[in-house]
Every structure is written in structure tokens, then in C-alpha cells.
Please model this.
Amino acid sequence: MTIIRNCINMGASPIQTLREDAPMNQPRISPRVPLIAAVLGAAACLAFAAPARAQEKVLNLYSARHYQTDEALYTNFTKATGIRINRVEADDAGILARLKAEGAASPADVILLVDAARLWRGEQDGLFQPMKSAIVERRVPAQFRGADTGQGPQWIGISTRARVVVYDKARVKPEQVDTYEEIAAPALKGQVCIRSGSHPYNLSLFGSMLERLGPQRTEAWLKGVVDNLARPPRGGDTDQIRSVAAGECAVAVTNTYYFARLMQSGSAADRDLVARVGVVFPEQAGAGTHVNISGAAVARNAKNREAAQQFIEYLTGDDAQRMLADGNNEYPVVPGVRTENPALAALGRFKSETVPVARVGANTAAVQQMLDRVGFR
Ligand code: FE2
Model:
């Protein structure tokens, strides 16, 4: 049994090295298995993996989440149900590519991805199947589920994160950036840092803007953001925060959990950085801050369909919600579930937008065309 689990994990290791979501105190390249050894090991495992016993219940999980507390999440599920979890860890793009390559032969039962843009992509590519569940409908707000196909949504949010504006306290006042639209204001010319416009986190933010502002205003806004850039988009969200602290730019955009990680960092330099950088939840007087999800889906060709549904329903329980949120400094998707995260508590409560994440995902194709037109790389 252990062999199969280890083999699947080893097989995923080369892809795992590409992931972007690793907490900063965790190396991006697994120290356990050198790349070549992992590839050879995976090949060997494919040849020698013994089939599971006929009566043994298993669930094959492809996950883009890689957090310590997620371990307890899986262990508790196995304890409660007797269903053993085989896990493949890779980044979102790696998982989507792998599912496509495997096709009908894919062993995947459940897929965990981060960001609505990627979940929408997976749905468009026919990699998921719908899931109808009274438990999920009761627990997860419709705003955070995929569009209902008649047989239920194709994916379900399991945690949320907000996309916020950070600013240099010495150069910018919070009221200058308390709407997303102000990022394009002429006063901030040459002062904005942001990661690639085509990154799913930005595609989703811009998809939400498109829903709210319409195509003309959104495209004009995107053009304004490009005009305000301090440098060409590069790096991840944490790099943008660091650039603000270093004085390279005065304003940047980040997901909440990246800032929360820096707030919890043991390094004096990071604490110094956090002291210099302010955080604004935009649109508090208007539509609310853009909120995205990490989410779960049943794989198109799931062989363990029942276990897949059981697992996703389990993820909406109070304890699982807390573990999912705590694992990455996120917020539970189920209303009323509380976590005790000092960093998020310090950032404070905020009003979220109410646009369905499924609409945001559907808008990302149009957004990409706008980005191409305005030269937002
Ligand atoms: Fe991330």
C-alpha cells in the first residue's frame, strides 16, 4: 500500500518543483528526491506497483495544495472513512496538463486547484464531472461554486483569499488606493508593481472588474495600469510586496495569504518590510474586495466516484474548513466557521464582492484578449 503512495508522490516530484504556492519557509525543490532519481523512481514504480486489494477503498487525489496541515486533513478522512488517499502533488498547470495527457486512463478521482480561472479552465477542457450534493449546497455559498449544470456544479470552493492592494506608507495614503480603479490613476504613474497580467490571480481580478465595469471601462483601466507600471510585470505576489518595501514601486497587488506569511516570518528583515508596507482591502465603500477560491472537482474519469463525493463533502465540514484555511492563511469558504489566525485577524474583517466566481472565470477569456490589446504582459 505504502509503495503505491510513495510511487505516485515520487512520480509527481519533477512537476512539484514548478510550484509557485510553496510557503516561503519551505524549499521549492524537494530535498528528499533529486530530479533524476525521481524520474527513474517513478518509472520503476509504474512497473512494480501492486494493485490495491479488491475490497480496499481508495481515493486518488491530484492536489495543487502543499501544506503541512493538509496532512492531518487527509489522515482524519482516512480515519473516519477507511478510505486510503493516494496523492499526486503538482502545480495547477502541471495537474491540468497531466489530466489531459492521461485522458480516460487517468487514475484521478478528486482534483484540488487554486483560483477560479484555473477551475474554469479545467471545466472548459472537460476534465471534471458535475457533482450534486445537498451537503455542499447547504454549506458552500452558490457564489463559490461552479455554474450549475443541472446535475450540480463541476467544482466547489473549499477556501477563499482576497486580492488586496499594498502600498508604501511613506509615499501613498490608503485613500489613494482604496479602489482597484485608482491603481490606474495618473498620480501613480511609474509607481505600480504587479505580476503578469495573464497569471490566473490577475485574470480573475480583471474578470471581476469586467463583470462590474463592463468591457470599455475595464480595457481603459487595464491600459491605465500598464501606463503606471514601475517595471515590466515579473515575479510572484511576494516579489511585488518586496519591491514596494525596497522603494522600487509605491503600490502593488497581492493575495492576502502572501502578506500574512510575511507577517508571520521569523526574519527581522521581513518584519521591517511589513512595518513599511500598508494593506488596503479595496472597494469597501462599493462592490467589496475581489475574493477568489481554492477548489475541488471530481475528475471526469473518476473510478472511485462515491469516495470522491464523500471526500469533497468532508472538506466542507467545520474541522476540515479550519485546516484548509489555516494551512495557507486563507479564509473558510463555509460561512460561520471561524479560524484563529493572528495575521489575518490583524488585517481585519472586510466586505467581499458578491460576483459569482464562475462568472469571473468565464470572463477570463475576454480579459486575455484585452491584455493582448493593451500590451499587458
Ligand atoms: Fe498562490
Observations:
- Strands lie at 58-63, 84-89, 110-114, 128-129, 156-168, 192-193, 251-255, 277-280, 291-299, 331-332.
- The pocket of fe (ii) ion is lined by residues 20-21, 114, 255 (CB under 6 Å).
- Confidence is low (pLDDT under 50) at residues 1-50.
